[in-house]
Amino acid sequence: MSDFTEIGTQFVNHFYSTFSSRQDLMNLFSDQSMLTFEGEQFMGQEAIYGKLSSFGTVTHGINNLDCQPTAGNGIMCFVSGELSIEGGNPMMFTECFNLMQGGAQGYYIHNNIFRLSLQ
Question: Up-side HSE of residue 85: CA atoms within 13 Å toward CB?
């Protein structure tokens, strides 16, 4: 496994395992980070936290994860999987992370795009 794939996989797994304590997720974003969630845009840690904390208990299952290196030693991660809110019926989702070097973890989420895959 190449370094960018290993780093991206570890980062994404950490993101979803940390989702239950969303305050801790904020260490993975910066004030310059942007989240696009179902077409709504949120800029900076506080706005992103506000959006991510607006849901009940969420569990994620990753079905596929692809990673690519980007300019500036970043990593692009594309996830498809299933999530459940408050134990409800599973819903398919896709999510894209643009990881950049920096932050407490060595990388932080500079860009994050999330979409439910509803039919």
Answer: 9
The answer to whether the beta carbons of residues 36 and 112 sit under 8 Å apart is yes
Q: What is the dihedral of CA 84, 15, 36, 95, to 10 degrees?
A: -60
Q: What is the pTM of this model?
A: 0.92
Is 4 within 8 Å of 68 (Cβ atoms)?
yes
For 41, 65, 72, 82, 87, the CA distances from 91, given in Å and listed in that order, are 21, 17, 34, 5, 11
Rounded to a whole number, what is the largest CA-CA distance in the chain? 40
Residue at token pair 């994050």? 112
R_g (Cα) of the chain, nearest Å: 14
Report pLDDT digits (tens) over 51-101. Answer: 999 988 999 999 999 999 999 899 999 999 999 999 899 999 999 999 999
Which of 71, 72, 67 has its CA nearest to residue 6?
67
